[in-house]
């Protein structure tokens, strides 16, 4: 949220004062103007994604904070429109269920390892 408030260049000594200034700004301006401000912030952050300074997941976290602040303060914004402008997050984990053959190989290697350790102890 602090990054967004810094982007808005609102007056205030700390985050709380700038958040209050954003609340006042959102209530005094139209919904479209507030949406435009959020979209401009997203565009600025997309440039940072292109420079590999942040990831798409980080941008989504920034937007989550803004969305929660707006919902808690009853600031109505068309989040469906804004969500469509967010880049897709890459899934780095390639988790899947192992196949039966892969499980058999693991058990076989485990059996061979335990058998070899057991033999060494007997000797």
Question: Would you give an account of this structure?
Answer:
This protein is an all-alpha fold. The protein has one domain (2-91). Helices cover 71% and strands 0% of the residues. The chain has helices at 2-8, 15-28, 31-50, 56-72, 79-84, 100-122. Helix 1 crosses helix 2 (15-28) and helix 3 runs antiparallel to helix 4. The chain is elongated and about 75 Å long.
Alpha-carbon distance between the two ends: 66 Å
- Quaternary status: single chain
Note the main sheet. none
Helix content: over 70%
Number of H- or I-type helical stretches: 6
Tell how many strands the DSSP assignment holds: 0
Tally of structural domains: 1
Helices and strands, with pairings:
Layout: H1 2-8, H2 15-28, H3 31-50, H4 56-72, H5 79-84, H6 100-122
Helix pairs in contact: 1-2, 3-4
In short:
The chain is mostly helical. It contains six helices and no strands. It has one domain.
Q: What are the key terms here?
A:
single chain, 123 residues, mainly alpha, 6 helices
């Amino acid at each position: 949220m602090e990054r967004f408030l810094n982007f808005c260049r609102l007056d205030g000594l700390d985050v709380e004062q700038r958040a209050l200034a954003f609340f006042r700004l959102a209530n005094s301006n139209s919904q479209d103007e507030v949406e435009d401000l959020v979209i401009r912030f997203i565009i600025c952050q997309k440039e940072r994604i292109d420079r590999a300074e942040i990831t798409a997941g980080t941008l989504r976290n920034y937007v989550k904070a803004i969305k929660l602040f707006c919902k808690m303060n009853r600031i109505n914004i068309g989040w469906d429109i804004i969500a469509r402008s967010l880049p897709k997050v890459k899934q780095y984990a390639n988790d899947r269920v192992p196949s039966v053959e892969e499980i058999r190989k693991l058990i076989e290697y485990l059996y061979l390892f335990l058998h070899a350790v057991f033999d060494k102890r007997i000797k």
